[in-house]
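agent> Task received from the user: take the single chain below, predict its 3D structure, and emit structure tokens. No templates, no multimer pairing.
agent> Plan: (1) validate residues, (2) run structure prediction, (3) serialize to tokens, (4) report one or two observations.
agent> Step 1 OK, no nonstandard residues flagged.
tool_call: predict_structure(input=
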Amino acid sequence: MAEEKQLLVPTDVYLKAGVHIGTKFKTKYMEPYIFKIRPDGLAILNLSKIDEKLKETAKYLAQYNPEDVLVVARRETSWKGASLFKKSTGINVITGRYPPGLITNTNLEGFIEPKVLFAVDPWPDRNAIKDAKRMNIPVVAFCDTNNTTQNIDVVVPLNNKGRKSVGLAFYILAKEYLKEKGLIKSDEEMPYTIEDFMSEE
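)
tool_result: status=success, residues=201
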């Protein structure tokens, strides 16, 4: 039970959200985070590594002010969690299509200069990552077993396709970010619940 206390949320909460369920494809980049391959071929991510990386990532993001972080979320299943992450932390979030040149073209209306980019999935969010690399902006990303990570500075191993999985991860990051910033003292002070982040509506 001692180990249970150290996790950011209880094990059963992680398991119910399916954060550890990968895909049938695994890249060499993600092998260090894979716990096992199920008989049906699905790769399973290591839960303690997921927890560890979420903890590290919250600390990393907390070095930045909300306006210095940009989250890109092309995948629709991530929109609810990403939107509540924005409401909780004040961090800038773009759901849907990333506007080309948003962080590279100073003449573009709405041009912004983030100090760190956070991508929900390196594949659909690849254009934003490409721009960030061009501008030497560090990239944080949720990475599933099928992702390549050569352009990612901070890898968070995660089922980045499931609504509940991504929602839970955003809940954890929001709560830990606010704690690191000294804006809340305990989980109870979070303005939204885990269920809010994971629901469809």
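agent> Step 4: summary for the user.
Strands lie at 34-37, 43-45, 69-73, 92-95, 116-119, 139-143, 154-157.
agent> Done.
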